[in-house]
Amino acid sequence: MHKSIRSWGPPLLLISPTIIILGIFVYGLIGANVQVAMTNRHSMQEATEFVGLGNFVQLLGEDRFQHSLVNLAVFTVFFMVGTMLFGFLWAWMLDKGVTAEGAFRSIYLFPMAVSFVASGVVWRWLLNSAEGDRASGLNRLLEAVGLGAFQNSWWNTPVWGMAAIAMPAIWQLSGYVMALFLAGFRGIPDELREAARMDGASEWQLYRHVVFPQLSPVALSALVIVAHMSLKVFDLIMSITGSIYQTEVPHTYMWIALTSNDYAKSAAIATVLLLLVCVFVIPYLIYTARAERRAR
Q1: Which CATH number applies to 63-295: 3.30.565.10, 1.20.120.80, 4.10.910.10, 1.10.3720.10?
Q2: What is the pTM of this model?
């Protein structure tokens, strides 16, 4: 008994402050949030009734919340596809070999150093919806190069507004995905590529049967990270458009509910968002745990 305590006691004592802090400020606050979401606290007054899942049922039936979920889905799809596509292409080009690779890497990674708020202010000007003689930003550029027919109202467009909002997010996070893929490319032994070429594999067969399978763990990790970040988008939208209905997502709707002192609704929205994040993260954790077990 004393020997077992000596073996696991010091490590447990070492990480106990972290466990206590996580227990209080993460899981404890999540529990408190869920508790508020199940009450009738829709004002600054204290809750007087436990309503269970009533707030969630009412929230999911709201046209406004459904609209915010649709906006989030559109943003997530364009953001994920854009970052994965450009990140992979840039990593592939760097892996093929380009002159001044260090400069290219720095240029691609630089947007990561800029906050979403700062880039949002710039992109608010770039995505200005004014057209014709009053155009500015991208519309002005299109007019200057003779492509005025492609001018549009960007985020004011009902269907493609969230796709326009995804553009600055893609610009900012593609470099991060590029770094992940580039590390994956550089981690593939040259012997595998040479062996495939000696066996007569074409370039496409080399990538299909050797490179892509080796990159699948990196691609999965990048996909989960990007999806997780897209579900938490808030500051970028607030910097570009503010809290307007046109580009409303659950996080901005939660902010509006919170500043309106509707604590139960804002807590319910936060809980739904947490569950959405779990949909992406938990399967990934299960997959990685099983992969580690098989590797042993």
Answers
A1: 1.10.3720.10
A2: 0.87
